[in-house]
Specification:
- The chain has 141 residues and is α+β, with helices and mostly antiparallel strands.
- It has a domain of 91 residues: Carboxypeptidase-like, regulatory domain (Immunoglobulin-like, Sandwich).
- The chain contains two helices and nine strands.
- The longest helix is centred in the C-terminal third of the chain and has 19 residues.
- Helices cover 18% and strands 28% of the residues.
Length: 141
């Protein structure tokens, strides 16, 4: 910390009101089984930073000590972690998010007998033949 003392005895800190420099950290996002999660969306709570994890679940973040990050992935719980939590734990675990359904109803359509299907196809074939057959042309010799 750089300070300067004036003749009147006052000490001025030159770092006052200067934001801390961002730090670079590498984190890995895994599921509950320890397998890497690809495509996890990571966004800074301030809104000026966003990235996604690669196929190994790894992402590189640039953060300041008071920054928070939102981790989200389809089918996983969303987590909000501070920079200090990220710097102490390099593996971030996103557990499965289970969405209960109220009720599922499955309706079956009535089945058509196979024997009647054959007769219908035969009748359709005969009707098609007579509808589209070409009539012979009369030719004079």
């Amino acid at each position: 910390m750089k300070t300067k003392q004036f003749g009147c005895g006052h000490i001025i800190d030159k770092n006052i009101n200067r934001p801390a420099a961002p730090s670079q950290i590498e984190i890995r996002v895994v599921d509950g089984y320890g397998d890497p999660l690809q495509g996890v969306h990571i966004q800074g709570s301030v809104g000026n930073f966003a990235t996604i994890t690669n196929q190994n679940g790894i992402a590189h973040l640039e953060a300041r000590p008071n920054d928070e990050f939102i981790f989200s992935h389809i089918g996983k719980e969303t987590r909000i972690l501070t920079f200090s939590e990220l710097s102490h734990n390099k593996d971030i675990v996103l557990d499965d998010q289970i969405e209960p359904l109220d009720e599922v109803v499955i309706i079956s359509k009535p089945k058509v007998k196979k024997s009647s299907v054959g007769w219908w196809l035969a009748a359709l074939g005969v009707a098609t033949y007579f509808a589209f057959r070409k009539k012979p042309k009369k030719v004079s010799l």
